[in-house]
Structure formats: structure tokens, C-alpha cells
Amino acid sequence: MGHPPAHDGPAIAVSDLRMRYGDKDVLKGLDLTVHPGGVTALLGPNGAGKTTTIEILEGFRGRSDGRVEVLGVDPATGGEAWRAKLGVVLQEWRDNGKWKVRDAVTHFADYYRPYSEPYGPDELLELVGLAEQAGQRIRTLSGGQRRRLDVALGIIGRPELLFLDEPTTGFDPHARREFHELIHRLTDLDGTTILLTTHDLDEAEKLAERILILAGGRIIADGSPDQLARAASTTAEVKWIQDGALQIHPTDDATDFVRKLLATDDGAVSELEIHRASLEDAYLELVARFEAGDADTAVDTFKEATR
Ligand SMILES: Nc1ncnc2c1ncn2[C@@H]1O[C@H](COP(=O)(O)OP(=O)(O)OP(=O)(O)O)[C@@H](O)[C@H]1O
Question: Which residue numbers delimit the ABC transporter domain (predicted)?
């Protein structure tokens, strides 16, 4: 059996999504469209609602209000055939630690067989770098190997849409690089659409064509890593050495400032540098303001950023 026909239309379409726990509004009108293909990263401070959003999209959590379609289906009513087109890697997942790795993979593949052609166990374990651990019991895996198994179980049914909730937690740098290569392979060769949450901005910049920042119950920034970096850095610092002393000047128009500086310097200016806030600087500022309870000004950090 081959792949079922791919869904035609947005992979994810969300409008005015709201989620309230008790008297606390966590999502306050989230709008989001993700077209098929590529990697989208969802970032945000702790407690922003990333897991809540992803679990609503996966159909694991009900919502308070709003319209949600995932592969053309409302997750609240999605059946097994719909679920088989999704791959899910949760933040934490408990299973039977006595199982051997290869047996677990073989067992889970059976769930997908009515709907798609799942990966064979050996091919899959090779793909996620667990071939050597195939005969080991799950409870004897290291944290990073365990996470690789989570990823293996998430992609086993060759999903059209893959959700990854903080997938590289506990990975060493080598495992992280291999994981990034796997993600590129899934998007380039299989055309998988991927939505991942991460706290690692560097990872988001490396993997994602599109970054969404969730804060204050809404998406407050949406764009490519470059677009967000530019939007976040309106102020630049110009540094130079003059008469043996370091000079530092913040400016909103570095080009104009440097032009004027050099027009009158008589050759006394050396080691001129322009430093712009990186996306990471801006993101850390956002998180710090949020943690200090300053949510309103925090969301202004990326106010200019739109796609
Ligand atoms: N079942 C629940 N009942 C009540 N409140 C909840 C529940 N689940 C989550 N929350 C609250 O909703 C908010 C959002 O939680 P969520 O786990 O979605 O955030 P997150 O962005 O994924 O955070 P993190 O980065 O820490 O994983 C938090 O304040 C959390 O305490």
C-alpha cells in the first residue's frame, strides 16, 4: 500500500483560538496558517502556551473557543485515518521499559499499516541512529537515545505533518547535529511538514524557515529568522577607537552616523565596528521582560515583525 493522497490546502489553519484553564486565559485569540512543507518553529517563554497549542492541534486537548483545522479536519473530531497522517513527539512519553527497542518499533508500525506504509524497523532505527541499540531494553537507553526512540515512533508512519515538542532536550551536540540532518531529510525527501517547539533559538534559526513567537496568549512575531532579527534590532551600537580611546555610540541610523563621523575624522578613527542586537539578544530580552511580569512592553520587542 502506498501513501494516501496528500491533503490539499493549508496543513494547519487556526483562527481566534482561545484556551482558558479555570479563570486563566492562556491563549487569547491565536491566528495561524501553516502551508504544507518546511519547518516552522514555535518559541515562547515558559508557560506561554506552546504545549497547549500543539496538543490542541494534535487532538489531545479540547479548546475553549476558535476554529482549528489540521490537514483539513477539526482535531476535536479527527478519526484514526486522520491521526495516522500525523506524527507526534510529546515532551514526555512513558512506555514499557521492558520492551526491546526493535520490538517497540515493530509493534507501533502495525498501528499505521491499515493507513500507510510505515518504515521497516531496521531502516527506521538506522535513520534515527539507534541501529546499535536495536536489541536493548528501552529502560537501558540513555536520555538522548530515549529521545531518538521518541522521534522514531513519531515518524514511523511517514507522517504528512509532524509535531515535535522540544525534541532535542538531552541531546549532546553530535546527536543534535544528526537530528538536524534527519529533519532536513524528512522535509527535503519526504515533503513532511514540521511544527516544532523549542527553547533553543540557535536550533530554530538552523532548522526553521519560519519562526513564530508565542507570548501573552498570541503570536507576537512571525517571520523568517532574518526578518525577525532585522525587526528586533532597530538600535545599533557604533564602536571605534579615536586618540587611543574606545568610543561607543548607540544610534537608530548607523549608516548616517558613520557617514558623518568619517566625513570629519581626519583619519583619526580606526577599528570601526557596527554591532546590531542579534535575534537571540532580542528574544532573551523578551523572555526576561516576561519573567519580570512586564508582559505588555515585552510583546513590543517584536512589534515591527510581520511576515
Ligand atoms: N491542565 C492544565 N490545567 C491548568 N493549567 C494548565 C494546564 N496545562 C497547562 N496549564 C497552564 O497553562 C499555561 C501554559 O502551559 P503550557 O505547558 O502550554 O506552556 P509552554 O509554553 O509549553 O511552557 P514550557 O515552555 O514551560 O513547556 C501555564 O501557565 C500552565 O501552568
Answer: 12-241
Q: What is the mean pLDDT of residues 248-262?
A: 90
Query: In a mutational test of the pocket of ligand 1, which residue from 25, 50, 196, 291 has the highest number of ligand atoms less than 8 Å from its CB?
Result: 50
Q: How many CB atoms lie within 10 A of CB 131?
A: 15
Q: Whole-prediction pTM value?
A: 0.82
Classify residue 257 as exposed, middle or buried by CB count within 10 Å of its CB (0-12, 13-18, 19+).
Answer: middle
Report, in angstroms and rounded to the nearest whole number, the Rg of the chain calculated over CA atoms. 23
H helix intervals, the chain: 50-58, 80-83, 101-112, 121-127, 143-155, 173-190, 201-207, 225-232, 254-263, 279-291, 295-300
Query: Strand, coil or helix: what is 229?
Result: helix
- The Cα 135–Cα 155 span in angstroms is 20
What's at 211, amino acid-wise? I
**What strands lie across the sheet with 236-242, from one edge to the other?**
245-251, 236-242, 269-276
What is the secondary structure of 52-104 as a DSSP string?
Answer: HHHHHHHTSS--SEEEEEETTB-TTT--HHHHTTEEEE-S-----TTSBHHHH
Whether the Cβ atoms of residue 100 and residue 136 lie closer than 8 Å to each other: yes
The residue-averaged pLDDT of 61-86 equals 95
6, pLDDT greater than 80: no
Q: How many whole angstroms separate alpha carbon 93 and alpha carbon 170?
A: 14
Cα 200 to ligand 1 centre (Å): 18
Among 42, 52, 166, 290, which is best to mutate for testing ligand 1, by the most ligand atoms less than 8 A from CB? 52
Task: Check residue 7 and report its DSSP letter.
Answer: P
Mean pLDDT over 244-272 rounds to: 89
Of 288, 242, 245, which is closest to residue 269 (Cα–Cα)? 242
CB of 44 shorter than 6 A to ligand 1? yes
- How confident is the model over 11-41, as pLDDT tens digits? 999 999 999 999 999 999 999 999 999 999 9
